[in-house]
Protein: Coproporphyrinogen III oxidase
Organism: Asanoa hainanensis
Amino acid sequence: MQKRVAVIGGGIAGLAAAVRIHDAAPDTVVTIFEQGATLGGKLRTGELAGSPVELGAEAFLVRDAATGEDSPAVKLAHRLGLGDDLVNPAVGAAALAVNGKLVPMPRGTLTGVPGDLGALAGVAAVDDHDLDAGEPLLAEGEDVAVGALVRRRLGDQVVDRLVDPMLGGVYAGRADRLSLAATMPALARQARREGTLTGAVKAAQAAFPRVPGGAVFATVRGGVSRLVSAAASASGAEIRLGATVRELARTPDGWRLTVGPTRDPEHVVVDAVVLAVPARPAARLLQAVAPGAAEAVGALDYASVALVSLALPRPELPELSGFLVPAENGTAVKAATFFSTKWAHQRRPDGVALVRASVGRYGDEHVLQRDDAELAGIVHRELSTLVDHSLPKPLDTKVQRWGGALPQYAPGHLDRVAAARAALVPTLALAGAGYDGVGIPICVRSGESAADAVLAALRDRPQAG
């Protein structure tokens, strides 16, 4: 009998799950239920002054850190026929705003945590308490906040000027609140073996497979939204936009979804479900069927950010891919990307440059209460100060707000997710950034793993009759 699988959530994790199911079990009927009006979640390409510009995730890692193979995002792009449209940055050098000036990002760090203290000269003063006491930094299974560990071993400035802005750029979070195991799993593994933090960093870096001359990042020519539309097409799924799944209930043979408005609900029966939505809506759906799992995932908090893009006529910009701004600088801008410098395919013959700034940190979202015009004005003034000269008036601006978009993994996050998954029946699987980590490759892998799990459960289920 033909099986039916519901994928709740049309972000890249849900789309990757649908493609995987289609490839592994082409006779399975897949339906994607997406509450919003578009697919892709935080993968969204817009337009600025006639050029494509990313309004969400910009690029992805080329290599899988654990294996050295192509990352799940690169593999998916090839599967979708976009392999020839992958492009790498033309400029990779980045900077850090220190004492009002842009200085080169120190080399040899792991998400800002140094393996060589000598590389921090002129960037951060080090309180070197990184002594080997003859035992690992962390006990087996132990998790701590990144900031707590680094402050204890190397002092405050290393956290405030390096680690915190790096984590802020990725998670809009703070080092003192984010889990080491969830945000830096390679470093966490080595911290359970090594007696010093710098030793753990070096061991983690040595464990990364090296590809000589290989690029670190890639994006899709024409915009990452092409990845979304290609995945939707390749999935063979029925796609239902504006379809809110309000309830999830067990049936003797599978699941019943309640979809649509309260006054006119629709009931859809399926054999398995991939739940690829953020933690809070997932917790609401799980409450009736797995209250323990609902409690575990519902504890996850999120940060809000705004991405402000400016089209500037012939500006004088440093030859950088972008820069990070430590919170101690007191600016609204926490990171900036010079798209037209970083990506050769986005350079324009008329000299118009595309610049994007990220605004908003966890616990400090008051700046996001400004309207779009005021926010764009703040960004323009602060960028002018940070690059040390007045930038020209923008030809066009675009403000993209992402409310509650970036998960804040508190210490113990991975254990909570493992407990939640253990509490679920095999035909229900979780996928997405709220569980396994941020970034396109991680979300693709998460969706594919969820698809594999429910397909295995369906194969193992006794057949009726």
